[in-house]
Amino acid sequence: MNLPSDSELIENHVFDEIMVGQSARLLRALKLEDIRAFAAVSGDTNPAHLDPEYANDTLFHGVIAHGMWSGALISALLGTQFPGPGTIYQDQALHFVKPVRVGDTLTVTVTVLSKNPENHSIELDCQVVNQKGICVLSGMARVLAPTVKVRLPRVAAPQIQLYDPQVRFKQLLALGNKLDAVRCAVVHPCDDGSLSGAMDAARYGLILPVLIGPEVRIRHVAAEAGIDLTGAEIINQPHSHAAAEAAAALAASGQVEMLMKGSLHTDELIHAVLSQAVLRTGRRMSHVFRFDVPLYHKPLLITDAALNIRPSLQEKIDIVQNAIDFARILGVTTPKVAILSAVETVNPTIPSTIDAAALCKMADRGQITGGVLDGPLAFDNAISMHAAQIKHITSAVAGHADILAVPDLESGNMLAKQLEYLAGASGSGLVLGARIPIALTSRAEGPSNRVASALLGLLVAHNARRSQPRTAW
After folding, report:
1. β 258-261/182-187 pair status
2. What is the mean pLDDT of residues 193-220?
3. Is 395 helix (H, G, I), strand (E, B) or coil?
4. Gap between the Cα atoms of 425 and 417, Å rounded
5. Integer Cα distance of 385 and 394 in angstroms
6. How far is the first Cα of the chain from the last one, in angstroms, to the nearest whole number?
7. What pLDDT score was predicted for residue 434?
8. Band of the pLDDT at 6, cuts 50, 70, 90?
């Protein structure tokens, strides 16, 4: 049996041991995560604590901590150190002197002023001082001190994983700042999800929507769902096939710079695009998901989970290259690509491991450019440095992957849906490899996902404008 060490134990100070003038201290540095966690558990979402733009215009000229966060440190000191377990709060007076900012290191000190043997209460002076020696909080506490000595294993604080989808969404939208909206053909938007997604993207200034489909039906959907079609051009087409062909023709003639899937099958739209020779690039078209995952430290791209069912090695070259080029557009200078399989060693009986090894060697020889590849890698050691270390994997990619290249559509689709439904990830995505980006959206996606896909398309479309001659996306 392993007994806890002294550092893993917590011991209280009973009333009879405590002397007037005795004191205790606690040190704590304030991090931005502390402010967000306090807001989450308290419900105090005052923008002075969470919104830098608003906070810059306040008296304090920047984000500050909640006053009660500093007060909570006094409670932590009283309850865990002095007097410690068994302490019961009776009263607390606080005087807030100065603001506390991210990066400040606070020293919390409580000093015994008096003892009352009749009810075992003590009064303590409370001071909180920052790293500059400036008092930020002062006050007085009265507690009932414990009377029974205890020495217990220290309880670890629960971990809080903070993930704010709206913050991540705003950060993604910020990539499109100062970019003009592009004309986007929205193909057969005959349900409220696809129609509202297109109009939301227009309101965010990402696209100039060209709605292609049966006009009467589109207007009926808009009326039923309360969707404002102001600013949208409508091109009447009788059915989804005709809408896809019309949209592809507009793209081929340069009249639109992006396509967005509405309520039609993906293969209808892709077939129409491929029928326009000018939209082909010689590179295989593929889909890339972009996910913000709560438990991963950066955005994660997954390819191909929506278009290519069982890609060959030659097709995987294009799939990986499309994803690398896309990641670079998103600002990743040298994307790290993990070529996934079930194991991290080459096994002749598992074809995906052989493909992974071949892709990595092709990257070494310059047949795939712009990124760092490693594989085969199992999912765990692709995204977890700890898992890679346990398996003695030395890799520049393991634990830091920007792109996960999956063996086939089935595994990729299951991985993408698991991240979304079990890990709480928020996703968006594009079809790449044609002359213009294609935003694919599903009926299960929410409005923000559709807007995010439009933002990705905007970035790719503007990159194509700058490319001379236009390259493959």
Report:
1. parallel
2. 94
3. coil
4. 9
5. 10
6. 60
7. 94
8. low
Nearest Cα neighbor of 11 from 146, 151, 145, 144 is: 151
pLDDT in tens, 75-90: 999 999 999 999 999 9
Burial of 91: CB neighbours in 10 Å, binned 0-12, 13-18, 19+? exposed
Place of tokens 């920052």: 130
Instruction: Provide the token pair at 401.
Output: 């992957």
Residue 182 DSSP symbol:
E
Output phi, psi for 220, to 5 deg: -65, -45
User: Which residues, in sequence order, are bridge partners of residue 286?
Assistant: 432
Q: What is the pLDDT of residues 260-297, one digit of tens each?
A: 999 999 999 999 999 999 999 999 999 999 999 988 88
Which pair of structure tokens corresponds to residue 319? 């799939």
HSE value, Cβ hemisphere, 13 Å, CA-based, for 294: 15
Task: Give the HSE-up count for residue 317: Cα atoms under 13 Å, Cβ half-sphere.
Answer: 14
CA gap 85, 150 in Å, rounded: 7
The pLDDT value recorded for residue 444 is 62
Helix then strand count (H, E) for the chain reads 15, 18
C-alpha pair distances (Å), 362 with each of 60, 335, 354, 395, 403: 56, 16, 12, 17, 17
Predicted TM-score (pTM) of the model is 0.73
For residue 332 the two structure tokens come to 């990743």
Domains of the chain, start order: 9-153 (3.10.129.10), 168-280 (3.40.50.10950), 285-433 (3.40.718.10)
